[in-house]
Fold Glutamate dehydrogenase.
Amino acid sequence: MNALVATNRNFKLAARLLGLDSKLEKSLLIPFREIKVECTIPKDDGTLASFVGFRVQHDNARGPMKGGIRYHPEVEHDEVNALAQLMTWKTAVANIPYGGAKGGIGCDPRDLSISELERLTRVFTQKIHDLIGIHADVPAPDMGTGPQTMAWMLDEYSKFHGYSPAVVTGKPIDLGGSLGRDAATGRGVLFATEALLNEHGKAISGKKIGFGNVGSWAARLIHEKGGKIVAVSDITGAIKNSKGIDIPRLLNHVKENKGVKGFEGADSLGPESILVEDCDILIPAALGGIINRENANEIKAKFIIEAANHPTDPEADEILSKKGVIILPDIYANSGGVTVSYFEWVQNIQGFLWDEEKVNNELKTYMTKAFKDVKKMCQVHNCDLRMGAFTLGVNRVARATVMRGWEA
Ligand SMILES: NC(=O)C1=CN([C@@H]2O[C@H](COP(=O)(O)OP(=O)(O)OC[C@H]3O[C@@H](n4cnc5c(N)ncnc54)[C@H](OP(=O)(O)O)[C@@H]3O)[C@@H](O)[C@H]2O)C=CC1
Ligand SMILES: O=C(O)CCC(=O)C(=O)O
């Protein structure tokens, strides 16, 4: 299912549960601003290459718009719109003073050299610099981007506006990045998983996950807590060891080989079959829409923790719910990244650096509080965790919108 259709469907279900006025519902759904830019760069061989870049600013009722920048071949209009909308509800669920945005460039970063990626990032920043800003819209990394991308964005933005570290988060530490941001989404996934399992009287045991920034940090931290990771995948392939994968050794292998493929100590798997492997907890941590009506019936996990954004189609949601599978939704489960981005922004504005322990403790406090808030909405509306999170987020944004004078 198209990502925007799926996200709109979840929003509308939440709006009905909340009894939102239909005009307010429509206004909350329509993005504040959609930016589409052409980015042409000279390649290293002297030829020109053109790419399309997007920034969708969905809503700013609760504060500056916030969300990552994705470099991936599948980046397109509807997907970026859906991701921007999810950011609006996510920042509200986390109860941090932001709205939502998302951006990206349709490109395969694996096919571009470092200098080509730098030129592309600088051209993109030149095209959007007057529409982002510390109190307007604050980008961060997402798939295919990282601290280096944010360093280039910061540098290019600062040429127009003066040195402004708080204009992006997820920066290198030397440029004002926060300790703990790199691990934050994965650490938040761990805290979210613990909160859910605790409620069900269980402890961390077997899992499987994608293996980028979020997936590899989640795997590392869950492994440290005694969890058994039985299968992981990335773009190079999927691997499995039902006795548990040696995660520290796998992390070294990935560093040296740029992927999980060829890891000794696990068998290789078809990329599709990883989702339906026998395990207690499934943690999708890559692309959207991978759990759908084609595979939902085959999933054996009892819990799904959505580290990725919108990994589960609404049709799959229905099938899984009938099977009794419990899904911890993206707008709560992966909110650790944007929460520590908020801490980074606060540190930059104050010109003060927190130690990592403070970052991690604050993150745990926010994640625990958000879990309780989501659960409360589940009780009020007699709904599942996804609708609990959506009603929580949408209600907070709706209230802020009305208080700011939407009626006028
Ligand atoms: N970074 C963050 O702070 C946050 C990220 N998220 C979400 O988490 C998810 C992962 O993001 P992040 O870890 O940052 O991104 P990364 O780019 O670090 O990792 C992405 C992972 O997905 C894999 N991948 C990419 N394309 C495919 C494909 N076609 N098939 C299978 N695997 C693929 C990559 O493989 P390979 O490494 O081999 O390319 C990699 O393992 C995304 O949904 C993102 O929106 C959510 C909240 C915050
Ligand atoms: O850290 C941020 O600002 C945004 C992270 C993000 O893109 C996400 O949560 O999906």
In short: The chain has two domains: 30-164, 183-333.
